[in-house]
TrEMBL record:
CDD domains in the cross-refs: FN3 (cd00063), Ig (cd00096)
Keywords: Cell adhesion, Disulfide bond, Glycoprotein, Immunoglobulin domain, Membrane, Repeat, Signal, Transmembrane, Transmembrane helix
InterPro entries: Cell_Adh-Cytoskel_Orgn, FN3_dom, FN3_sf, Ig-like_dom, Ig-like_dom_sf, Ig-like_fold, Ig_I-set, Ig_sub
Protein name: Neural cell adhesion molecule 2
Bilayer disposition of the protein: Single-pass membrane protein
């Protein structure tokens, strides 16, 4: 370096230093010149000045329009804190907001470029989707973004890969499921990834898939039921379907209407109960329960026959501490129809003191249960009775049995008082020792 070059170099430094001391300098935070966001994002960029005079600072957009300091979607506002700065605030950023923004005062200016990508959106994708069993099912995910997203699918939390069963369409991102079964029903997640060299975004969307199927009978397709004249009988048919089926009852090829004198129909999503008043033998015969949905229909045939409820059982009662043991016996023909075999018992009891059967306690047992009632009061007089049940209903009650539960055993009381005794005698000896 020769002398003259050295001098002019120092002169340059002097000028720079000089201009530094005299004028402001501006800088941005975050410290970068390229900002990329997705539509809908909220963010701000702050322009700081080394000068104390904030009034000189202005932000201008890509068309050199100054940005006002009111509360517009894009506006400028004073930064909080020790440093003097002006924020440029973007709310709900839009594609049209992209461009160069400049912060300047009377001496300096700094700029940044804003890029805005179209955020991931799932548009009109239905939250609940339906597809019929057996066919190839399609789960839609109308996902959009710019740049285009990469889409992954999940079923009940597990990532789905393209294979024989599943295919993800490369353009519309819909998920194709081959040989759709009811096991394919459940929670699906459509997860979209967008990335550029400046930014990235991940968003997901949950979809519930219902697999629809034609009505399906739960139980027998043809059954016999029994009833006796003078009683009410419930005929029940259980048929599941998706969509929920429409039930219809038929007798003698005629539709049975609801809420007539003789019949009331109660439907749930998967069953229908026809309650019939059996006022004569004419109510007996073949009833048909038909369930249908757009995918098909099914019929259950119920042959309603006359049968008697069981004869009254015999009853004996014993006690073991607070448990009452019931000995219930029935006599039954060996060749009786399956539907008319006794399948359970109803046991009722009252306090002997009350003497009335108006509001008895009632317990139901199935054949094979242990016929016991636990936690009965000690030293109390009860009256018990039992009735047997078969397909035609409950029969007559047994003989009434009066029974007194035993008195409470005092063994535990004795043991606790003897402990107390031992304790007090120990105390007694201790006192003596002290004396
Ligand atoms: C997805 O696109 C393919 C081909 O473009 C088309 O066959 C299919 O029906 C589309 N699926 C949906 C759900 O739009
Ligand atoms: C018959 O069905 C109706 C409606 O479901 C129910 O309230 C009633 O308790 C049933 N009767 C018998 C004897 O099961
Ligand atoms: C039939 O009528 C009864 C009584 O009004 C009602 O509770 C029931 O829901 C009706 N059943 C159907 C299937 O409409
Ligand atoms: C009956 O089906 C409807 C429609 O599928 C559903 O919204 C409702 O929760 C179901 N009810 C019951 C008790 O399952
Ligand atoms: C019928 O639907 C009820 C709820 O509505 C459900 O608890 C029951 O498990 C269903 N039965 C069958 C056989 O699907
Ligand atoms: C039930 O008792 C009544 C009246 O005592 C009697 O007429 C009827 O035959 C009895 N029923 C049976 C099944 O024993
Ligand atoms: C009997 O009483 C005990 C204790 O109070 C209780 O844990 C138990 O469930 C009761 N058993 C019955 C059958 O009520």
């Amino acid at each position: 370096m020769d002398l003259s070059a050295g001098i002019s170099f120092s002169f340059l430094i002097a000028i720079i230093l000089c201009s530094y001391s005299q004028s402001s300098q501006l800088y941005l935070q975050p410290v970068k010149n390229d900002h990329a966001y997705f539509t809908g994002d909220n963010f701000f960029v702050t322009c700081f000045t080394t000068d104390d005079n904030i009034e000189k600072l202005t932000w201008t957009d890509f068309e050199s329009n100054p940005i006002s300091t009111d509360h517009g979607r894009i506006h400028a506002e004073h930064a909080e804190g020790d440093q003097v700065g002006l924020r440029l605030v973007f709310t709900n950023v839009e594609i049209e907001d992209a461009g160069t923004y400049t912060c300047s005062d009377d001496q300096d200016s700094v700029s940044f470029d804003l890029t805005v990508y179209r955020a991931v959106s799932f548009g009109d994708t239905p939250r609940v989707q339906h597809a019929p069993e057996g066919d190839t099912g399609v789960v839609l995910c109308n996902v959009k973004s710019d740049p285009k997203p990469v889409v992954n699918w999940y079923f009940e939390g597990t990532k789905i890969s393209n294979d024989k069963k599943y295919q993800i369409h490369p353009d519309n991102h819909s998920l194709k499921i081959h040989d759709l079964t009811r096991d394919d029903a459940g929670e699906y997640k459509c997860k979209a990834f967008v990335f550029t060299h400046l930014s990235s975004q991940i968003k997901d969307f949950d979809i519930k898939l219902h697999v629809q199927y034609a009505p399906e009978i739960i139980g027998e397709q043809q059954v016999s039921m029994y009833t006796s004249v003078g009683s009410k009988k419930n005929l029940t048919c259980t048929i599941t379907a998706d969509p929920v089926p429409i039930f219809q009852w038929l007798y003698d090829e005629m539709i049975i209407h609801n809420n007539t004198k003789k019949s009331v129909i109660y439907d749930t999503n998967n069953s229908s109960v026809l309650q019939i008043d059996i006022d004569s033998k004419e109510r007996l015969g073949e009833y048909i329960c038909r369930a249908s949905n757009p995918l098909g229909d099914k019929e259950v045939i119920i042959d309603l026959k006359e049968g008697n409820p069981p004869a009254a059982p015999t009853l004996e009662v014993a006690s073991d501490k607070d448990t009452v043991k019931l000995d219930i016996k029935i006599t039954e023909d060996m060749d009786i129809d399956e539907e008319l075999k006794v399948d359970g018992f109803k046991v009722q009891y009252i306090l002997t003191m009350s003497g009335s059967w108006n509001s008895p306690k009632t317990l139901e047992f199935k054949i094979g249960d242990v016929y016991e009632i636990r936690n009965m009061s000690y030293n109390t007089k009860y009256i018990f009775r039992a009735a047997a049940h078969n397909g035609a209903g409950y029969g007559n009650f047994s003989n009434e049995v009066m029974h007194e539960t035993p008195a409470l055993q005092t063994a535990s009381v004795i043991s606790s008082s003897s402990t107390k005794c031992a304790l007090s005698s120990a105390l007694f000896f201790f006192i003596i020792a002290l004396l």
